[in-house]
Amino acid sequence: EEAIFLRKKITLLRAFSLLIGSMVGSGIFISPKGVLKNSGSVGFSLVVWFACGLLSMFGALSYAELGTRITKSGGHYIYILETLGPLPSFLFLWAEFFAIRPANSAVVSLAFGRYMLEPFFAPCAAPVPAVKIVSLLGYYMVLTLNSWSVTWSARLQTALSIVKLLALALIIVPGMMLLAQGHTENFQDAFDRQSLVWDKLPLAFYAGMFAYSGWFQASFVREELVRPERNIPLAVIISVITVIVGYMLTNVSYYTVLATQDVLASPAVAVSFVQRAFKSLISVVPVLVALSCFGTMNGGIFTFSRTLFVASREGQWPPLFSMIHIRRHTPLPAVMLMFPLVTAMVCIGDIYHLLNFFSFSRWLFIGLATLGLIVHRHRHPELHSPFKVPLFVPVSFSIICLFTVAMSFYSDPVSISIGCIMVLSGFPVYYLIIHRQMSDPSFLFCSTLSDYLTHKLQLLLEVVQQEIKTY
């Protein structure tokens, strides 16, 4: 009886919670090992963490301006489409769906499973099959919730954001207390240049940027934000500053308690920290970390489903995925689509190989999106934007992203080559199907079968096209 469309239910608090909940996830609890391993020393690893935070702020500010200039949801995809054109946007969508997003979700899910089981098996490591089963159960729970209700997904994200900040506080407070008591032995020779390997630094940045990734999530739900021209800049600035401060203090706490070899040997750095510093909370912190990862999974599903929704609406993805459930008002088909790929990657994946595998593609396209902001400014000088950043911010961010991507070929050629092949594999699909269909509307690829399947799935899932334009 009522119009079918995605409602504006994301307030400033929910936008802040979405960003905090997406950034503070598994990264700060698993990435310290990757950053330290590839930067070589405690001092250089802290420099990498701060540099990643500053770089994230530059990216977040650039995306905040893009979010006020381009009024559609969809994040990276819609920004690349509107500024650089349909080919690079489809290549992003292709890589995001088949590599970036399922690998990212698998990394977070595996971290969730590992930390959830850690208290039950300590001091031994949890069995790998058990970790994968729990990881999948957690992912399926979040998937079900996002299919059921936008409001409850947002409420869960707000609650878990508080849990995340509490988890960081439980690491920061005892670490700072020990540091104040003079425990600085692990900071001796912090900047040991002999252990620094320059060609490994891009991998250190990938691990650090993975921990900060999530600052772009508000742009994915732009059409569902209340007062987006005000709330997007406010949410990203407050959340990124909060996370930078929290991450720096957390890493200092880690190194106050754990020596370099302890961090590198630990499969779960936060658990090793608590075992040394705060034994009374040995069973509490892993659960808080697992809940933190749970919130990151929730934010990832919430936002990426909007990318598929918008791509379908723009004609670059099957039309079923731009449909909304008639009662729940959720993009149900888009939410459910990631189910098989994430399941497969969790079953076969290893966290650190997955991290390098998807980081190449992710930062390539984020760099292109901020490059698109420069192009958009040049093409539309008359367009008034309520939020504008200095030009050097998107310029420097784009250069650093693309340079890091180029350097990573020397650091991990196998994983990066796989990511590159995944991106390039979208070329024939685009020219055989998408480009022909966009240039010639009468061209339809397997139209009879496609229409039949779409109709049957539409009836089964009870979904219809959006009835009101929201951008």
UniProtKB/TrEMBL annotation:
Membrane-spanning ranges: 12-30, 42-64, 76-100, 120-142, 162-183, 203-221, 233-257, 277-297, 332-354, 360-377, 389-410, 416-434
Membrane-related topology note: Multi-pass membrane protein
Chief localization: membrane
UniProt-annotated location(s): Membrane
The UniProt record lists the keyword Transmembrane: yes
Assigned GO CC terms: membrane
UniProt key word Transmembrane: yes
Signal peptide range in chain numbering: none
Top-level taxon of the source organism: Eukaryota
A GO molecular function held by the record: L-amino acid transmembrane transporter activity
Keyword terms, alphabetized: Membrane, Transmembrane, Transmembrane helix
Name of the featured protein: XCT protein
Source organism of the structure: Smithornis capensis
